[in-house]
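Supplementary Methods S3. Input chains for the assembly prediction are listed below.
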Amino acid sequence: MSLRLSHKIILNFAIILIIPMLLSVYLVSSDLAERSEREIDNQLVFTTKIVNKFFFRSLNSIQVQLNILAGTEKFRAALEKSGSDETALLIKNWDEKLNYSFIDVYCQASPAGRFELYASVRKSKFDPAMAPGDDALAKAARGKNQSSIVFAGEQKAYFRCIIKPPENLVVNKTFVLCAYVQIPNESIDAIKDVTNIDVMIFDDKISVMSTRFDPSGRRTTGLKLDAEVVRRLEKSPSYRVNDKFLSDYTVNVYSKIFDEDKKFCGYMCVIVPRELFAMASMYVVKNLYIILAISLALATLSGYLLSSNIAAPLMQFAKIAHITSEGDFKQKVDIRRSDEIGELASAFNKMGDKLDRYNESLKRKMFEITTLYEVSQSMNFLNNKDQLLTIILTKMIEALNAEKGSIMLYNAEECLISCEMAVGYPGKFERRVKFAPGEGKAGQAFQSGETIISNDIQSDNSFLRTQSTQTTDNVTRNMMCVPMKAKDEAIGVINIVNKKGAEGFNEEDKALALSLSTQAAMTIENARLYELSITDGMTRLFIHRYFQIRLDEEIKRCNRYGPVMSLIMTDIDHFKKFNDTYGHQVGDMVLIKVADIIRETIRNEVDIPCRYGGEEFAIIAPQTGFEDAKKMAERIRTAVESAKLQGPGGKLLQITISLGISTCPANSKDKKDLILKADSALYYSKKNGRNRATHFSEVPAQETAEI
Amino acid sequence: MKKLFKSIFYFVFVMFFIIVYSFFDMAKTTRATFVISGILQGNIVSYKASGEPYRGAMVGGMPFLVSKISELKKKAQKSRSAFYLLDCGDDFPGTAHSYYSQCRAVVDTMNLMGVTAMLLGNRELDYGFEVLKARARDANFPILAANVRNKNDGAPFAEFQDSLILPVDDAGFKIAVLGITPPETLTDSTIKNVSELALMGETETVEIFKRKASKEGASFTVALTQLDFEKDRQLLELLVKSGIDMVIGLDFTNQMNGIKKSGDTVLVALNGFAKGAQLTKVDVFFDTRTRRPFDFCAEVVPVAVNQIEPDGDCAKIVSDYLRKLDAIMNQVIAVSEVDLKRPFNEETNFGNLIADYMRKAASAEVAIQNAGSFRADIDSGDVTVGDFYNALPFDNDIVSIEVAGDVLYDVINATCRRERGLLQISGASYSYDANAAQSGHTAEALLSFSIGGAEIRKDKKYIVATNSFLASGQGGYPQLKNCRLVGSFGNLRESAMMHIREDKILKPSIEGRITRVSKP
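Predicted structure tokens for the full assembly:
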């Protein structure tokens, strides 16, 4: 399980506070519980004693009352003078407060004689088991009044008093009074009313008195005494049980009841509501739990605060560091504080800035290198000058993040720099913009050999507005003119116009542009030199050697990959006549004119036009079969025929050419043979009236044999 | 097989539709549960039922009643039903607990029942109007008595309310409850207890209520009464005619288990002898949109001790009162050497004893006491307050009235028909013809009637001691109603007990005051 730092901090705080708090709650509560249990025990013992005392005191009042009644003059007189009936009548008329159930008067005729029942007043059925023993009567006769509790008879609980009337006047006769008063419920109800403590009195088996009422409104008498209680009370003076009656939790304390002679009478159960004990421990524990809860809340809060102060910034650091590791150095830690975290954030951001700058410069360098590599790669595979210029310009515009640009090359013949290529301008490009060196920004750059940057071109007086720069949707905002130098000689200027964004060109752009322009200058110069080496100076067609190389290549390609190719050989008809008639200059003009027509008629960049020698030309037509080669030859022938060449004295010169075609592999797979067959076809054309094109296949067999 | 699947699919589809429909239909239903209690007559403790349908079973008792009501309330709340406990009254007096606690025991325990409204019954006045007012202030529920007014100024009493408006839901659906105290209250009660009261006419009472219910926007009206639907036709017709939606009354036939209808009015009744052993529960289903009831469902709810867990808090209150009462009830006031037998259609020693005390208390020439006022015998031995209370539970006063000889003769002649037991008598004696005294017999039943040893003189006026019940013309002797009241001598039972305490030993006997002669 992985926890976040913030959670760990909160958990840490919570554990630090909770464990000691839990321990203290546990220790205090267990200690308090023990103490309060002892306290409860003490209280219960005390309560039981009080209840016992209260109970007996209320009963003792019965004895006192009996004594008073027995001591009255009337009663004594009745005993002395009247018979038993009169005595009984007198007892019946006693104050009803006594509420006695039975009063028996026993008489001992002689000191050693038995006690006989003399008079008896019994309000309800008397149980013989209740009758006092002779010992008890004898004791009373000796002047020792006795009282005890008797659980028997109809009413179940009686208080029995055996007394001797204060003075017996009848000689030789001893009277003893034995009174049974049903123990009134008030004797225990009063305890309940005053203290809210319930009391139950048991004989040896069942409850005979109770302050409790069941929900049906009956006193809870007749309940069986638990045998466990009896067993426990054999060993200890009291036994405590937790109980629940209706909705109240109580503590029931059982104890034995003894009479004056310490004789066991029955059991008493004192029922104390649990809530009566102050339950100090409960309150303390409750408070402790409250403190625990508060501590937990505070710990969590502290943890949260700490976490938000430390973990949250750290999390932000981690996030930003992660982003930085991905290569984005621009993200910043947004913490503005004056403490250590704030300082760390500031240092981190500075580091990020430095890394970002370093990265940017690296990226720039990489970009430059990549651009240079791409440009040079592109240039290496191009021998077409326009394409080469387009690539150079496009790459430079892209590398310098500009909108458009142009390349101007120096024309030594005109002593002007003329625009050779433009990219990003609307409309078709035309080679018409020409500047003298030192004229305009480009001219200045060319002349000085230094890169010129003008980021506010509209207010630059040296900026020359051409037609294209004056149109509203083509406004030049800024410009960089980079001279192209080959072998320390300027060969032209590259103009990069309108850098994207508001900043304009800067020194970095300048350095990049310079590197690129140097590469471009070298490439252009190389291209120029190469072009010169394979081109016939007059006709600007490829020279014979180049023809041989390319024909060889094409025949090989043809033989290897299977397509067809054709070779067209052409010769100017009656060329000697032009030379002889008009001189060599006109002859050269004718050659140049025919060369131009051939160049314009064939497929640019596909067919290879060459000067074969003298007035003979050869055209290698790759991927061209018999039919197409014938059409192409016819097209050239027609174009030459219809061409108008102004000769000396304004005379129009009519030029025609004859053409011979051979196709590989149909006619031959061999270079020499192919040339020979094309030449044969040419010869056939010459022979058959000139100004015509003949494919070798059209030449009759005998003719070829002849050739 | 395919057919079976098809059938099951259709069945499930139909069941689904029914369930969804009933769900939406239920959503349109508002339910209110009315539980009707009352006629407690002070019975806060369970008792063994003496009448049907629970004869011999332990029934009633406030701890059980409170618990049962709580259970019904929980059930109602579970089924999202509004719950109201309407009480028909006659709750406060009737037992020793009530008498000695001046009804506090009843009110204290009723406060746990959650009574929505209680009707002021005529028995509530038994211990005097001041006691009633004090208990009304102790009660945590309103006591309705729309027709009870102050005799002096005609104003309502602050302790009672005319009616009650009960909200059913939060959307403004209300129920109005009217409480009409029985019109016979003034005549059936001891005069001094009702001396301050006047009863407003029922028509006016109902009109005022209807106006109030309409003003408050109550769309369902309930009249809480003690009507016996079989007998009290006039008032019932008035309520039905007035458009009361539900009338709650009493059923003394023990036959009504459900609802009855009279016109558009629904009649619901509580057992007239309920005494806490029975409740009536009525579920009313309302259309939520129209707020009109569309279905009623009533049932009798028994309060049987062996089926209910008693309420602990209530049991404690009851227990406290019982203990206090026990101290009073166990007081021995005298010793009786003989069994005291309660009378009915003969002369008994107990009847003679009480009649003698009455005559003595009122210093009257003659005393008459109806046999029905004796409810229990007392065994020989100690006589306790409790014994005496059980024997004479009714809280009537001893009064002395001036009765003309012929009227007194009529009264004794009437009693000799033995329709309601023979009047116990003191200071006089009478003999009757047992054969003539059959019900419906027109012949004179009284054979002889002497007062103070001399034959009654019909033209003479006698001072007669009796109880306030008989003096108000009740108990089958309307002739006594118009007799002049000479004096009032306090509560009959308490007065008798006072004399008993003085005598200490009781030994009353049958002296031949009432002689039964069987004439051929």
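The radius of gyration of chain A is 70 Å. The first helix of chain A runs from residue 5 to 70.
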